[in-house]
Amino acid sequence: MLFVLQAASGGVAGWVGTTVAISVAIIAGAFIVMAVILVITAKALRDTSSSVADTVDRLERDATPALQAIREVAQDGREVSALVRREVKSVVRTSKRLRKRVRRGADRLEDRLEDLDTLYEVVDRKSTRLNSSHTDISRMPSSA
Fold first, then answer.
1. How many angstroms separate the CA atoms of 92 and 100, rounded?
2. d(CA 58, CA 46)
3. Residues 44-75 as b or e (16 or more Cβ within 10 Å = b)
4. Chain center to CA of 83
5. Tell me: the pLDDT tens digits for 30-40?
6. Rounded Cα distance, 142 and 127, in Å
7. What is the mean pLDDT of the chain?
8. Which residues does 52 contact at the CB level (< 8 Å), separation at least 6?
């Protein structure tokens, strides 16, 4: 701006005013070009934004049933998991009861076997005493 004032007053060479005018015109032209580029870029951005919004809407429409199906599968999974958990607890309880009964049966069997062993020893002693207390009558004389 200072150059323009000086050129108008005649204190500066004549070519400076022309150079400043050309420079200002070039700068103004550059700003116009930048403004046009900005407008074109904004339009392209608006179109892209619109396209992205359409794509998001389509994805949302398409994804909604899939998400619902996933939720249903997850719910079914929770229900199956709860059922399996109940069944496993039931099997564990039954297994504990059976082990307890088997242990009691084994203990009773062991007691019975001890009783049977004791009975066998008593019968064996009696049999040994009975066999040794009588003579063998069925022997035939050697001369016969």
1. 12
2. 18
3. eeeeeeeeeeeeeeeeeeeeeeeeeeeeeeee
4. 19
5. 999 999 999 99
6. 29
7. 85
8. none
